[in-house]
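Note to self: the last two entries modelled the partners one at a time, which told us nothing about the interface. This time every component goes in together.
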Amino acid sequence: MKRAEQIDGHKHMTPERYNARVTEPKWQRIWEEKEIFRTNGKDSRPEYYVLEMFPYPSGRIHMGHVRNYTMGDVIARYKRARGFNVLHPMGWDAFGMPAENAAWHNKSHPADWTYANIAAMRAQLKSMGLSIDWSREIATCDPGYYKHQQRMFLDFLKAGLVTRKKAKVNWDPVDHTVLANEQVIDGRGWRSGALVEQRELTQWFFKITDFAEDLLYALDDLPRWPEKVRLMQANWIGRSEGLALRFELVPSPQADAREIEVYTTRPDTLFGAKFLAVAADHPVALDAARKDPGLAAFISACRHGSTSAAEIETADKKGYDTGLRARHPFDPDWLLPVYAANFVLMDYGTGAIFGCPAHDQRDLDFANAYGLGNTPVVCPPGEDPFSFTITDKAYEGDGLVINSRFLDGMTTEAAKEEVARRLESRPLGNRPQARREINYRLRDWGISRQRYWGCPIPVIHCESCGVVPVPEKDLPVELPRDVSYDEPGNPLDRHPTWKNVACPACGAPARRETDTMDTFVDSSWYFARFTDPWNDKAPVTAACIEKWLPVDQYIGGVEHAILHLLYARFFTRAMQATGYMGDLKEPFAGLFTQGMVVHETYRSKSGEWLFPSDVRIEAGPGGRRAFHAGSGEEIEIGPIEKMSKSKRNTIDPDDIISSFGADTARWFVLSDSPPERDVIWTEEGVQGAAKFVQRLWRLVGELAGLAAPAGTPLPEDLPPEAMGIRRMVHMSLAKVEEDIERLRFNRAVAQVHDLANKLSAAIGGIETERVSQELRAVFREAADILVLMVAPMMPHLAEECWAHLGHKDLAAEAAWPAAGKELLIEETIALPVQVNGRKRGDVVVARDAGRAAIEEAALALEPVRRALGGKPVKKIIIVPHRIVNVVA
RNA sequence: GCGGACGUGGCGAAACAGGUAGACGCAAGGGACUUAAAAUCCCUCGACUUCGGUCAUACGGGUUCGACUCCCGUCGUCCGCACCA
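The predicted structure of the combined assembly is written out below.
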């Protein structure tokens, strides 16, 4: 039987059944007509900006989107009910390669493909009943969006935040474009998965390293970010304090260089030095290679070997003795061999190191391979300094300095300071021999992409004037519509006319930049554009930035912990530096990284992946077995994995929404798993959620039959039974409130279940005709609270219930009910009683019962007496309102 | 290799300023209502038990009146970074 029939098929028998297929579109229409989610900038209530990471318009939403946008919507609706003026917008991260791939394969135009996808996905998101202000919708591929981005690029250029430089870049041979370091995962392109090659190209860079220090230290000002993400960013930025130290070279016919500068964080181990090593493409190595064919061959081999990052990982430490010798800074007669080595990176520090094998594992591996020996100069705490030796495991920790002349006996910290102090005040040539230096692992952000479907970089190359910015009056530099995808590479570059322009400075024929910007640029400021998407003159409006930013709660996947979130933090600073952001530095005050939606995989005997819809599950006491729905063949149930097209373990949100309704889908993705963890999608789970929708509808119907009319005030004095119900309802309300505030949606769901169970029990034995007025008033309140509690999570069902309960307004506009604080305090409490830490029973005492009364009641318990077995009581520990422990 | 997180019933999970371990849901089993099924409702559901209890939060220790929670060690799983000097 099809799902839709399952849901609707019983309608004729049980007309009171809740029908999401009719109800959900109805309320969506009413919300839209009344424009209740349109955010008014003039509203004087406190603002709250909740944002989910905007989607790439791939064509269809997936369950990950459903989970992400449901969480955001719960917060948005809850905050609205709490009296906030909520901004909850939606847009499209619309530039990118898939549109071009589609163009390549289907002969479609990237723009047509993208806008058709946007239309389809917008309809899907609307069917989820999200409380979004659609009037603010933006697409980054719209010239009305990217023209502002081009203007900011030029402002950044003017402010010195953009540079153009020749650099070794990561080249993706499949996508035919450059990737930033952040976009290379395990040596492969983040999108294509192809092994990345190194190429030397002239590229545009955003100078993110200018903000390295601030990006690092400001992480401490983000208490509402996950610790994990802050740590990942801190590691990525990778700050280290050390010494840039120059070694004098013994004059040699081998090379012209007179010195080599190294960078070290361990100047305290200087007396353990056994060699110097420079990167293969270090100037000194290149120089020496001119007279040494063997070295030239080694350098060439290093370049070759390093084309794939995967090889670097497994490569052995290899080196080549250049024949050069360096003098030890503290002993001119102590000569150190200078190697070119494959493990030294040219673009970190100075591209050269001194090797101390005893206290650095890499240096030790290298020294052992080339027979350079080692001298321990740091003695670990607890080791005997006279017998401490190193063989194949370096000691990298702190300790007491040994074998180091004037440093002997110092701590690691003191020795570092002493070496720095001596060398920075001692000249070598006309400069101090060393200076303290801070290095970062973070590299500048290369944004040039050799693609068509991206934001054009607004500059013109002129033979005589060089790089000339496009004048502001000529913005936007729009993409040409007519491009061909007959061959790989950049269609913009091949376009017959587009790139030919006159130089804005001298008027001579010139050429447009044909690279476009990395799409991560587009997503680095969209959150700011949402605050005033109508501003045609400028990217943002100062007053709106001031009013709405930072985003109060941002929600998305952890996969953006470094890329997008670091770029957005940089962009905010760059925008601040160019006068767009007021004094705002951090874009997202609160960040939540949600888990994925995962599903079982199914594989036939022949090894073919099967869609869940083609698989029939049979469950019994012996476990679950799977069969092919058509042939009946038994199917292997594979591991639970992230939903993916290749494994076919996907569930289409459209199918779920059209058969069960959006509320069921929303309720399910909020249930069971904590939101930061993966949630396992199961057919049983969805069925359970759908059943609960019906159950809640029935329960509210029953409550409506018992309840006083809407608006009936509660009587002053309530009998104990009625008070008990009130207390129970308000307790649940308080818990759900706290759970939503803390984004613990799975607990909020459990609390609603719990309250439904308790209310069902409470009305179970009641005869409708004989319900007292007091009880009717309490049921009225209980029903109202139950519905409003559920409203952020299942808004359509709540709306229908709200109307059924006789309300004339909308649940979506109703205020969050106030939990009565006095109701949360019980007059009598049940205290668990332990004997020697083991629970033996409970005593029910007055909340304010005295110590003596509690002790007496506890000792009177039969199980307590039995457990004591006549032994004398040593003491009785009473933790007020929590527990009693009798120690014997 | 470095950094981090986590390990609780058949399953997803609750409980953690140290205080009743397993809330809530799923699956399963039994029953009621039905010609029957679905739906619905009721009961059982960590293990063992002489029905008094005993043992259980990966494993081994420790601190404490009391430990899933804190400390030390071991094992395992997952994630991030990866020759960063």
